[in-house]
Amino acid sequence: MSGGEFLWLVVGGGVGAGARYFLDGLIMRGRRDAFPLGILVVNVAGSFALGLLTGLSPVVGAVWLAIGGVGVLGGFTTFSTVSVETVLLRQRGRAQWAWGNLLGTLGACVVAAAVGLMIGGVFAR
User: Fold this and answer.
1) Where are the chain's structural domains?
2) How far apart are CA 79 and CA 56, in angstroms?
3) 100 vs 124, which has greater pLDDT?
4) How far apart are the first and last CA of the chain?
5) What is the H or E stretch that residue 121 is in?
């Protein structure tokens, strides 16, 4: 990866993080102490997009896969926020929501990534 391509990866990470902050804020506006639906939506959408991009990797190439996957989508999705939100839900006495957040995020993201890979693989042929 060249220096210019690496710079695009770094910029992509910033764009992804900004998009996560914006989308989460938009979904969670006025929903204080509620189930963290915004981060769930972000992670499921990001998992689908990474699966799609990975499925398309023969067409887009390794450099753009890294820029889009590691940079943009790496900045967009967040496991650390899921972890913190799960612990906070448990601390607030919402154990069922905590388990739902943890297992629901995992299951939904894996399914979304699989669907994205499948669709990307079809278009890459």
Assistant:
1) 3-124
2) 24
3) 100
4) 26
5) helix 95-124
**Contact in structure between 3 and 63 (CB atoms under 8 Å):** no
Contact criterion met (CB below 8 Å) for 115 and 44? no
Provide the pLDDT for residue 96.
96
Copy the structure tokens of residue 44.
């499921």
Per DSSP, helices labelled H in 56-94 are: 57-60, 62-65, 74-76, 79-91
**Angstrom distance (rounded) from CA 93 to CA 78:** 23
The torsion defined by the Cα of 48, 54, 60 and 61, in degrees rounded to 10, comes to 150
Six-digit token string for 32: 């204080």
* CB contact burial 43-74 (16+ within 10 A = b; e otherwise): bbbbbbbbbbbbbbbeebeeebbbbbbebbbb
Q: Over 80: is that where the pLDDT of 33 sits?
A: no
Predicted TM-score of the model (pTM): 0.93
23's CB contacts (< 8 A; 6+ apart) are 38, 41, 42
Residue 28 burial class via C-beta count within 10 angstroms: exposed 0-12, middle 13-18, buried 19 and up:
middle
